[in-house]
Design goal:
Number of domains: 3
Strand content: over 45%
Structural class: mainly beta
Low-confidence stretches: 1-29
Order of helices and strands: HEEEEEEEEEEEEEEEEEEEEEEEEEEEEE
Helix content: under 10%
CATH topology of the largest domain: Immunoglobulin-like
Mean pLDDT: 90
Length: 319
């Protein structure tokens, strides 16, 4: 019994001594001795640049904005908005802005192909893509009605001119090349033959949509057919002097009650006060064509529509 107690005492004493030593050692260490230093952060670097749109195609005169997206070493992506130098390989085909709001904005100059590039000046990383410039395209069509407004009196004709505006800045009369149509041929018709393209014939009061198509581009204008009547007629020239065998075409311009004006040469009745001095055609296609008569003298040429008449004085000289 004594031996057990003695060994038990010894074990207890040794255990206590070890615990005391451990406490002493631990109390001498600094408070932060167990904390390891933070690792240095790995710098994120730009790895590549992608330009969009890729392999774009646009017509001469067209603009194309580009976006540069960077891919970084940590796998992230973001749009690069500054620090880029933009360029094109062939400056005769296209140009591109490098500063401010024009940075990355390409302008197509001539038909052909070239490469668009963006260089990050800080890292030396660049990206590029191809671009193709095609022939200029029709971008807009505007209409001009002979009356000067969108109104045409019933029973009369008015020429409509279609002007095309192209992406390279050109403008041209495309009336003869375009295809013409209307949505209601009971109100009006429009010529589409070689000799009368764009010539609108107003039939009855109402509105009609006139469509023009060229190379897949479609544009429309609205014409109103009114019941306005002619209130005045003016002849050009207002007076005429010519010799034996000579001819002169008169033109009649009608002013309508709604203020519109139209050339009405083919829509009025023509007459001469003396066929010996001057004759004037009243035949369709040649109305208003005056021819010197067989005798010298003076006569009146008249153009009449309803109760409205205009007069031009004609002098046929001896020689």
């Amino acid at each position: 019994m004594f031996e057990v107690s003695r060994w038990g005492f010894r074990v207890f004493a040794i255990g206590g001594l070890l615990a005391a030593l451990a406490g002493c050692v631990g109390s001498d260490l600094p408070d932060d001795a167990s904390d390891s230093p933070d690792p240095e952060p790995t710098p994120v670097t730009l790895r590549s640049i992608a330009l969009t749109p890729a392999d774009a195609s646009l017509p001469v005169g067209g603009d194309q904005p580009y976006t540069a997206t960077g891919t970084y070493s940590d796998g992230s992506r973001s749009v690069i908005t500054s620090g880029l130098s933009w360029s094109v390989a062939d400056t005769t085909v296209a140009s591109i802005g490098s500063d401010g709001e024009s940075a990355g904005l390409l302008r197509a100059l001539a038909v052909g192909g070239t490469t668009v590039s963006a260089l990050d000046s800080a890292s030396g990383v660049s990206g590029s893509t191809g671009v193709t410039v095609t022939a200029a395209q029709l971008g807009e069509i505007r209409f001009t009605v002979a009356t000067g407004t969108g109104n045409v009196p019933a029973g009369f004709q008015a020429q409509i001119v279609a002007t095309g505006y192209y992406t390279d800045g050109r403008e041209a009369d495309i009336s003869a090349q375009a295809n013409w149509s209307v949505d209601d041929d009971e109100v009006a018709t429009v010529g589409n033959a070689e000799t009368d393209k764009g010539l609108l014939s107003a039939l009855a009061t109402g509105t009609v949509v006139v469509d023009v198509e060229l190379d897949g581009f479609v544009a429309s204008t609205v014409v109103t057919v009114t019941d306005a009547a002619i209130s005045a007629i003016a002849l050009t020239p207002p007076d005429l002097e010519f010799g034996p065998g000579e001819r002169q075409q008169f033109r009649a311009t009608g002013t309508f009650a709604d203020g519109n004006e139209l050339i009405v040469t083919e829509r009025v009745d023509w007459a001469s006060s003396s066929s010996f001095v001057v004759t004037v055609s009243n035949e369709a296609g040649s109305k208003g064509l005056a021819t010197a008569g067989s005798l010298p003298g003076r006569a009146d040429v008249t153009a009449t529509s309803g109760s409205v008449t205009a007069t031009a004085q004609v002098t046929r000289t001896l020689f």
